[in-house]
Amino acid sequence: MAAQGVRIMSLAALALLAGCGAAQDEQQGEGTVITGQDGDQVQIGGDAADQLPAGFTPYPGAQVVGATAVAAGDGGGGVIMVMQTADTPAQVIAFYRAQATAAGVTISAEAQTGPTTAFNGEGPNGLGVAVSAAGGPDGQTVVQLTAGSDR
């Protein structure tokens, strides 16, 4: 299920460049970077997780299933990351809520539906964060972290 979500997010990121004219792609390590004519970039895999906004990190001990980074020529951009961990959704949400608060993010929405807990919010310099954590029948929690800014 997580792999399908990663493919869908990767396709969504690629769609962001669809209006950028001709694009070039280049291999970087284990990832691929696609650059539009206007300088906007999408990076799939590789070190995309390293491009999280300051103050945000992959969940400790989690396996990163996939990561996509989008960088706009004007300095904006962000990362969509999917991870798996044996920790509970509550532990994951508490970890990212602490990171968000430390980064000056104001939580604007929270939800819990069945095994899924999520929140999102906005912070300084156009920072936006959305986190969801869903417990699965195999005891693993699937985490999706989306974080970026428009500057």
C-alpha Rg (nearest Å) = 15 Å
Unreliable stretches (pLDDT < 50, length at least 5) are: 1-28
**Global geometry:** globular
Range of helix content: 10-25%
Note the main sheet. Answer: 9 strands, antiparallel
Give the distance, in angstroms, between the N- and C-terminal Cα atoms.
32 Å
* Total beta-strand segments: 9
Order of helices and strands: HEEEEEHEEEE
Mean pLDDT: 80
Placed side by side, the strands forming the largest sheet appear as: 1-2-3-4-5-9-8-7-6
User: How would you classify the helix and strand content by structural class?
Assistant: alpha+beta
How many separate domains?
A: 1
Share of residues in strands: 35-45%
Please give the count of helices. 2
Q: What does this entry look like structurally?
A:
There is one protein chain. About 20% of the residues lie in helices and about 45% in strands. Strands 1-2-3-4-5-9-8-7-6 form a nine-stranded antiparallel sheet, sandwiched between helices. It has helices at about 1-15, 90-100, and strands at about 25-30, 30-35, 40-45, 65-70, 75-85, 105-115, 115-120, 130-135, 140-150. A hairpin with a 2-residue loop joins strand 6 (about 105-115) and strand 7 (about 115-120). The chain has one domain. With about 150 residues, it is an alpha+beta fold. The chain is globular and about 45 Å long.
